[in-house]
Specification:
Radius of gyration: 14 Å
Number of strands: 2
Structural class: alpha+beta
Helix content: 25-40%
Largest sheet: 2 strands, parallel
Strand order of the largest sheet: 1-2
Strand content: 15-25%
Number of helices: 2
Shape: globular
Order of helices and strands: HEHE
Distance between the termini: 31 Å
């Protein structure tokens, strides 16, 4: 609902980060962290490392989007 409002103040609060997730990420915690179509690119050890790192950066919601199976 917030994103559909025509309110410039909302968009001033949004921070988008595009990072090399193979390197340590040094950011403050965010309300929502999203991982999209990346876990399949890593072996199990690095997937767990990435998930742990993403969780440490999350204050409220960690969203993981990965392809499913039929």
């Amino acid at each position: 609902q917030l994103a559909t409002q025509d309110d410039d103040n909302f968009w001033q609060l949004v921070n988008w980060h595009c990072l090399n997730i193979q390197q340590p990420i040094n950011l403050k915690r965010h309300d929502v962290v999203t991982l999209s179509y990346v876990l399949i690119e890593f072996d199990e050890e690095n997937r767990l490392r990435l998930l742990d790192q993403a969780w440490q950066l999350t204050q409220q919601a960690l969203i993981i989007i990965e392809p499913g199976t039929m």
